Every structure is written in C-alpha cells, then in structure tokens.
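dude i think i finally got it to work??
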Amino acid sequence: MANKILVYSTLGCGYTDVVKAELERDGKDYEEINLSLYPERWDEILEYTDGVKLTPVVIDGEEVTVGVNGIGCVS
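look at this
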C-alpha cells in the first residue's frame, strides 16, 4: 500500500498552492495539514526545516521536500 502524501501548509502561501496544483494535476491523493489552523503540528516538520516555520513541506514516504525549489513561506 502506498504512503499517503502529506502537505503541510499555511494560509495564504502561494508556494503551497503550486505544490497542491501539481499533485492534483498528476492525480495524486494527499492530505493537507494547515498549520495556521493546527499550530500544534509544527513540531512534526521542524526537523526538516532546521527549526524554521516554513511551508510547504511535502512528505511522501521517505522523501521530504521543503518549499518550491527551496523557497517557501515563513510564518
């Protein structure tokens, strides 16, 4: 069974919109975790962002992508 793709986002982050559009275009299912609504979940990704509150973060199994081409939204 394939791992569910997790997309960590914040409200108003255009880079997150780009990532979600690409996943939808490719027909990939994902779960969005909006950190603006669930700030207690930041701890789940801070290890990947060197402690910076940065989105989007996409976790697809063992593969973790931070930002879009290394650029994201800082909260």
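The mean pLDDT is 94.
im so relieved honestly
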